[in-house]
Each structure stands twice: as structure tokens, then as C-alpha cells.
From TrEMBL:
Ranges of residues in domain Zinc finger CGNR: 163-206
SUPFAM superfamilies listed in its UniProt record: Jann2411-like
Lineage top rank: taxon: Bacteria
Secretion signal span: none
Protein name (record): CGNR zinc finger domain-containing protein
Organism of this sequence: Actinomadura gamaensis
Family annotation (Pfam families): ABATE, zf-CGNR
Length: 216
């Protein structure tokens, strides 16, 4: 991966994808310019995971301890998560563009990671719901990667291409699922990309209208 890695304190507004796996894709920003990877270390991945409120807090504490005891192992697990993220980004955007066939290398690598994750998972059926459960004891530092690749498989099967968009904002390129009623959401976030676009249009209009006023 060639993009710049930059420290970033994750905030709730970084989670606008509509699915935890899509939020993972958006830990790289400015994909439509010079991509910036905001996962600058395993602790950052844990910080992001905690913010999503999608993972068991006890598991995150256990991972923090594992990472402290084995920083090199944590760095390798982060690299695997980053690679997974990029492959999933290729697959999700291929589905949105309805590219057929999808990028074969990414398909093959995601399949391999899915098999690896599934090999350590337990099938549980509770309250009429079947799940492949992953735990830190089996998956170790790859717990988050394993959870995410299993959920990615569900996402890829059910992704609504007509409702999945790539934000056209300046230095953005975030992916999001539009679950608004009208289905006309264009920006990842109206408060950021939407507003700056509105600001630019306003500025351009103002300039144009000023230009139209002929000097007396
Ligand atoms: Zn955006």
C-alpha cells in the first residue's frame, strides 16, 4: 500500500458508512485524491473498534493486553487487517460499479481469509439466530480481522448496489449505504462534504453574479 499513514483520533462522524465493514473501508480517507490511512497502529484499530460499539469491550481489553505483550505480532495483524480492508474496498466498489467479473485477486484473498476465520469459529444457534462466533482465545490478535471478514461475506451477499455510493467530496471518496427514505443521499455527511460543496457552489455563484454586474 502506498498511501500516507497519518494519526487521527476517530470521532463518531467517521462512522457514516451504515455498516461496520464499510466504516472500516473509510479508515482510509481521500481515496479520490492522495489516500491517507488513519490506522497508524494496532492501538488505533482498537480505538476505532471501540467507537463502533460493534465489538465486545472485554474482547477489546484482551486484545490490548495481547498487543502490549507482542507489539510485532500486533503490527502484523494490523497489516493483515489493512490488506483485508483494501481487498474489500475493491470488491465493494466493483459491486457498486457492477463490474463483472469482480477483481479476481481480491476475491481469492478474501476467500482465503474467510476460510481462515471460519476455521476458528463456532457455530452457535441462539434465540432463533445462527451465528459464526469468533473469540480472542482462538483468533488472538486477528480477532477483529476475523470478525470483519465473516461480516464482510454477509455484507457482500446483501449489498444494495443502487443504494451504495462513493462520496464525491473533495479529498473524500468514502463509501456509504444510503438508507434515507428518498434514496437521494449524495454525500457521506451533509455536515462535512455536503456543506463544503454547498459553500463552493455558493462562492462560484457569487463570483459569477459579481462578474455579471457591469461597472457603471
Ligand atoms: Zn465525503
Amino acid at each position: 500500500m502506498t498511501e500516507t499513514i497519518q494519526a487521527h483520533a476517530f470521532r463518531p462522524r467517521d462512522l457514516v458508512g451504515g455498516h461496520v465493514v464499510i466504516d472500516l473501508l473509510n479508515t482510509v480517507t481521500a481515496r479520490n485524491a492522495d489516500p491517507v490511512d488513519r490506522l497508524d497502529g494496532y492501538p488505533r484499530l482498537l480505538e476505532w473498534a471501540a467507537l463502533t460499539e460493534h465489538f465486545d469491550p472485554d474482547a477489546l481489553v484482551a486484545l490490548e493486553r495481547l498487543a502490549e505483550a507482542d507489539p510485532a505480532g500486533a503490527a502484523r495483524a494490523l497489516d493483515r487487517t489493512r490488506e483485508l480492508r483494501e481487498d474489500l474496498h475493491d470488491l465493494v466498489t466493483a459491486l457498486v460499479r457492477q463490474d463483472d467479473p469482480a477483481p479476481a485477486e481480491a476475491v481469492r484473498r478474501v476467500e482465503r481469509r474467510w476460510k481462515h476465520a471460519a476455521a476458528g469459529a463456532h457455530l452457535t444457534v441462539r434465540e432463533n439466530t445462527a451465528e459464526l462466533q469468533i473469540d480472542v482465545a482462538t483468533s488472538g490478535l486477528d480477532y477483529l480481522g476475523h470478525r470483519l471478514v465473516l461480516e464482510a461475506f454477509d455484507l457482500l451477499r446483501s449489498l444494495p448496489p443502487e443504494r451504495t455510493r462513493v462520496c464525491p467530496g473533495v479529498r473524500c471518496g468514502w463509501v456509504f449505504i444510503d438508507s434515507s427514505r428518498g434514496g437521494r443521499r449524495r454525500w457521506c455527511d451533509m455536515a462535512t462534504c455536503g456543506n463544503s460543496a454547498k459553500g463552493r457552489t455558493h462562492y462560484q455563484r457569487k463570483r459569477q453574479s459579481t462578474a455579471l454586474v457591469k461597472p457603471e
